[in-house]
Design goal:
alpha/beta, binds iron/sulfur cluster, binds 5'-deoxyadenosine, six-stranded parallel β-sheet, 3 domains, Rossmann fold, pyruvate-formate lyase- activating enzyme, OB fold (Dihydrolipoamide Acetyltransferase, E2P), about 450 residues
Length: about 450
């Protein structure tokens, strides 16, 4: 038997890309590939790219350029570009970088085996269609391979919101939800393979409306179905849009035991003028009222957010409104970015804020968010929390896991195994993690 072919996948960007890379690796596993951690001994290199940050495409071109030597040594090496840059750039990638054999958009991953075969025969292959068939059904899973205790599971893809700064509606396409029974089967399979916590993924996950036995289901209904899966201990979901935070989902946060008290709910900005120009279709006030309702259902919920500073026409006064909103909401964690233009999006045409001013605002916002994050983390000291252990720590006998609120927790002299969910008393709060001791 010939030695297995080796696949090197490099993943950029969001959790959905992490999930997609796993699925691509499993599918290509069916073609005799095993994964390798370095490009040096690979027979196929796949870059699973992200288009959300500035100069994303340029970075991919420079990364590809680095494989020139490898390809010269090994002419059979296949190089592929997947993900959102592949979708956005399409054929341009092959034109600019002749090293590339294969370009595959996020909606076509199930076609990888055929594409690999064609590339193997010396063809250049490109697929950036938005096909009708269900790619998730067609993507193969490696049978019963053991998994770590946490996993991502894509339930919804694409977005119809068209925020003025965002490429997602163009690269991932229109909003599509997977049918509930397939998600449940996949969840059961993950649990059989050792998974205890599932994070449901979607660009706009709370807009989920997949087919169920009695018509379309909401995300909350799907969560309640997952709640019944024996052996599954924790459910999370990300990322949500404020306008799709339905009553039943808010209620589930108060009543569903497996749904963790953590919610990533980006607001992006605190000024109504800017929110309007961002095409966010909510106001600062409606967002704050929403947070209040969520906290009424689950008082201890940790709120996480995304922010953009320096959006076109943002004045100092507008920026102050963002700071005021942050003060009011009190975030447990947050991601903040300086606005940068994405060609093809509506905001790209507008007058830009002075970059120095935007830098300064970003620093001020991050100082406030870091302070809040630290306060929320410190407030865990003395509490007894559930911790799902994920790996061994750096020191002998030490284990590391995640609390219900997604903080990393270190426990010394710990007899828990990887995959155990145990009660832990938090004793101290460090720079980026908590320390605790097992209660029993
Ligand atoms: N500039 C800066 N930040 C952006 N994001 C999306 N597009 C842009 C852009 N053009 C941020 C938003 C989004 C997060 C994933 O990335 O805050 O919620
Ligand atoms: Fe992009 Fe999210 Fe807005 Fe959709 S809701 S356009 S994914 S920022």
């Amino acid at each position: 038997m010939s030695a297995p072919k080796k696949l090197y996948i490099k993943t950029y960007g969001c959790q959905m890309n992490v999930y997609d890379s796993e699925r691509m690796a499993e599918t290509l596993g069916g073609q005799g590939y095993v994964e390798t951690k370095t490009p040096d001994d690979a027979d196929m290199i796949l870059l699973n790219t992200c288009h959300i940050r500035e100069k994303a495409a340029e970075k991919v071109y420079s990364e590809l350029g680095r494989f020139k030597g490898l390809k010269a040594e090994k002419p059979d090496l296949k190089i592929g570009v997947a993900g959102c840059v592949a979708q956005a750039e399409g054929e341009e990638i092959m034109r600019r970088q002749p090293l590339v054999d294969l370009v595959v958009g996020p909606q076509s991953y199930h076609r990888l085996p055929e594409m690999e075969a064609k590339a193997g025969a010396g063809e250049k292959v490109l697929d950036t269609d938005f096909p009708e068939e269900d790619k998730f059904e067609k993507l193969k899973r490696r049978p019963k391979a053991k998994r770590g205790p946490t996993a991502f599971l894509t339930v919804q893809e694409g977005c119809d919101k068209f925020c003025a700064f965002c490429v997602v509606p163009y690269t991932r396409g229109a909003e599509v939800s997977r049918p509930a029974d397939r998600i449940l089967r996949e969840a059961e399979d993950l649990v059989e393979r050792g998974v205890r916590e599932i994070t449901l993924l979607g660009q706009n996950v709370n807009a989920y409306h997949g087919a169920g036995p009695n018509g379309d289901m909401t995300l909350a209904q799907l969560i309640w179905e997952l709640d019944k899966v024996d052996g599954l201990e924790r459910i999370r979901f990300t990322t949500s849009h404020p306008n799709d935070m339905m009553d039943d989902l808010i209620e589930a946060h108060g009543t569903c035991g497996k749904l963790m008290p953590y919610l990533h709910l980006p607001v992006q900005a605190g000024s109504d003028k800017i929110l309007k120009r961002m095409n966010r279709s909510h106001t600062a006030e409606s967002y704050i009222r929403l947070i209040e309702r969520i906290r009424a259902a689950r008082p201890d919920i940790l709120i996480s957010g995304d922010f953009i500073v320096g959006f076109p026409e943002e004045t100092e006064e507008d920026f102050q409104a963002t700071l005021d909103l942050v003060e009011e909401v009190k975030y447990g964690t947050a991601y903040s970015f300086k606005y940068s233009t994405r060609p093809g999006t509506p905001a790209a045409e507008r007058a830009q804020v002075d970059p120095k001013e935007a830098d300064d605002r970003l620093q001020r916002l991050q100082a406030l968010l870091t302070r809040q994050q630290r306060e929320v983390q410190d407030s865990m000291v003395g509490r007894e929390l559930g911790v799902l252990f994920e790996k061994k720590g750096r020191f002998p006998g030490q284990m590391v896991g995640k609390s219900d609120y997604l903080h990393a927790v270190h426990v010394a002299d710990c007899d828990a195994e990887i995959g155990d969910l145990r009660r832990v008393r938090i004793v101290s709060s460090g720079a980026n993690s908590l320390a605790g001791e097992l209660i029993t």
